[in-house]
């Protein structure tokens, strides 16, 4: 009991001390876009901090300098597939297609997780990421902001650029976070939970729920195509995959 | 486990399954009767791979690459298509009943989306969808046995399915029956699909997918083979008089049903819904469901241009669902006398433009004025007008006036060499005729024509100016240009025709 009180008071004492480069997202409710009957309708999200910007090539270069086992030539294939950092010029060298201030991509979930731990942070959960990303520049419930939804959809309708733009070029949302939409996809800690309950995707049969007829039955808002696409995208991933426009940012408990 | 099986199948490759009965049992191996291996060579529409000569089943490897590409949807209109093989529709795959297919789906590394494939030819949950679900920069493999012959649609089934199909992810796979299909002289591949753009039909620039229009099933574009005009002019499919033509026609949807019709032809046989029995003969129009297909066969007896349409006819003339089959060869006057008149097509009458359109028109007029003062630009501009006008002509006018402007004797006046068209005194009457229709008698090259022409005022000022510039400067005609401003002025001065001429 005393410990609990201590924890609560510690949390209160820490409130407002948001680490540099992060923004605090107030507690709220996340309503999953896609869920099975057994899943809860609402998921409470506790106050947390989220990086204002996606992790850049420059940030990640510093990480691999100090963590040699995550260099391109050293990373184990089991933890990062053969595309790992392929747009870099070498183990410790960026290239024209990987500007220092652009988001780091071509990296696996394992690599992103290792970076976050090294920073004393963690990856956000699906609930945290989606909750933070649902805010438009002016309101927390961006799903009710038609103009915001239109702008988000625009990115999905454009072909992918070979060289990504610098981080921070997108408009910040209500919580002060940049680039949650319109730059890259982002890893989340539980990227594969939407469809998977067991230890393997193939044997659960649940991943078929996003295909064809079953694909829409569990969905909350059929007009919210971008959320649908994010779920589709995440469920196509394995933790070792390195994809050209998939980056990440870190979260931290407050 | 999957890796293990893959390795085994690789190891067995050189053996060629000629002695499968004697070979060791394979994990997911070849079934009895499957002899040899080959790699399928899928083709881009309108082409079809040659008939299969084998009299036995084989192991067939099929690879498709998914590309997300910006391509032409109509003249001046671009769209980011999601494709199987780089084009819409996806590449045509031809295999034989009983074949053991090893399917590889490759998702190009520059793509944004994960994709998969659901082949209606596959027996099994999802038609391969779950097994082929592939992230960008990755590749999936699965195998199936082609149990049922027929013509089948394949499509992407990744969430949101409607958007993946709506962006062009569909194609056809033909599983030839064991006994093969009867021989014909020509085979072609057509597939209808709708595109839901934010802009209206013809609005220039890169167009985005409009989810609201898609849900409401209100497509600005309904096209064959992925774009307006993909089968007209020099891209038309061809045949010679006396030849037997077989069309493999699919409908990708995502929403609309196709009423497939070839103007001036009667299908001798229709394999309805893509089945293997030519169960209907002497058919005018056959219905092709979304996510379905049909095989139609006919002998071409008379030379000329045959227009293929979705006979939900506004789609053909206002949304792009129109293609051409050009037949060369000697006339057969017993079969057809030469007086070809298709049913009159009465277009809709568009509402007058809004404020913004008027403002744009005045700005464009200012630009045009500047340009006119520069003769070099004016020349280039004329060429642009002629090219754009050709597109309008081949979409709207050629059905009556004929592709080379010669008209139809005693019915439709010619444009090629027409004294009426080239006489300056008629200039304004001709423009007005396009805007409100033409019902007075008209004498062209000494012959009197009485058939009315319907109003085409849904065409924009620019389209009318371009098509007039085209007809006045084609087929030996040589004259000046018609400016959009001139059409605009006459449109303002002319009362609009009734919205519905039937009322």
Tell me about this structure:
The complex is a heterodimer of chains A (254) and B (503). By secondary structure, chain A is an alpha+beta fold. In chain A, helix 6 links the parallel strand 5 and strand 6. Chain B has 503 residues and is of the alpha/beta class. Chain B is 22% helix and 29% strand. Chain B contains ten helices and 23 strands. In chain B, strands 1, 2, 3, 5, 7 and 11 form a six-stranded mixed beta sheet that branches. In chain B, strands 12-10-14-19-16-17 form a six-stranded mixed beta sheet. In chain B, a hairpin with a 2-residue loop joins strand 22 and strand 23. Chain B is globular and about 80 Å long. The chains are: A alpha+beta (254), B alpha/beta (503). At the A-B interface, helix 5 and helix 6 of A face strand 2 and helix 3 of B.
Q: Looking at the structure, what is the overall shape of chain A?
A: globular
The major β-sheet of chain A equals: 3 strands, antiparallel
Strand/helix succession of chain A: HEEEEHHHHEHEE
For the biggest β-sheet of chain A, the strand order reads 1-4-7
**Which chain pair shows the most residues in contact?**
A-B, 34 and 33 residues
Structural class of the helices, strands and pairings of chain B?
A: alpha/beta
Specify the structural class of chain A.
alpha+beta
- Can you tell me the overall shape of chain B? globular
Mean pLDDT of chain A: 82
Total beta strand runs of chain A = 7
C-alpha-based Rg of chain A, rounded: 19 Å
Proportion of β residues of chain B? 25-35%
